[in-house]
Design goal:
The protein is built from 7 helices and 3 strands, in the order ααβααββααα. By secondary structure, the chain is mainly α. The protein has a domain at 19-136: Arc Repressor Mutant, subunit A (Orthogonal Bundle).
């Protein structure tokens, strides 16, 4: 049995920490940062004149990188929902960014890896993130120790969500 914490109503004017408000703000910030990241990727590919893939597809290629994965592994790592993965992988394969092969051992499983064209997109996104971090002066504004703490907290939050999803469903 899980312990329950008391959460104050979000609009209450009481003194003290409002756990729910902080939690919802964190979720909102993560969502907004993700949308901003997609906007930066979209702008970069428009600047390069590469209009044959969208920002979500470019990020998918970045996340695959040099690995060989299944669509299920992409879903289970929490990057994407099932229908989004299948649809985007189909489009990326048709455009020559990924190749997929049936697994020799389990013919039901399809393994995906980037083609040379897909690796070029991966490199572009990686360079964009590196340049963006440098332009923002992240090393000075967010020291590695702060980023490590923030990432550890977000990983904990992700674990809580994963446990909750397993518990509820």
């Amino acid at each position: 049995m899980r312990a329950s914490i008391a959460i104050a109503p979000i609009y209450e004017d009481e003194a003290g920490p409002d756990v729910l408000a902080g939690y919802l703000e964190t979720l909102s910030l993560v969502e907004r940062l993700h949308r901003l990241m997609l906007e930066v990727i979209k702008d970069e590919f428009e600047r390069l004149g590469q209009i044959d893939l969208n920002a979500v597809q470019a990020l998918l290629l970045f996340n695959i990188g040099s690995k060989t994965l299944t669509a299920g592994e992409l879903r289970s790592r929490g990057y994407y929902q099932g229908s989004n993965v299948s649809y985007n992988l189909k489009k990326l394969a048709e455009a020559g960014f990924v190749e997929h092969r049936r697994c020799d051992i389990d013919r039901r499983t399809v393994r995906i890896r980037l083609t040379a064209r897909g690796m070029e997109v991966h490199r572009i996104v990686a360079d964009l993130f590196r340049r963006h971090a440098d332009d923002l002066g992240l090393a000075e504004r967010l020291p590695p120790a702060d980023l490590d703490r923030m990432n550890a907290d977000l990983c904990r939050l992700e674990r809580y969500w994963t446990e909750e999803i397993r518990y509820v469903y």
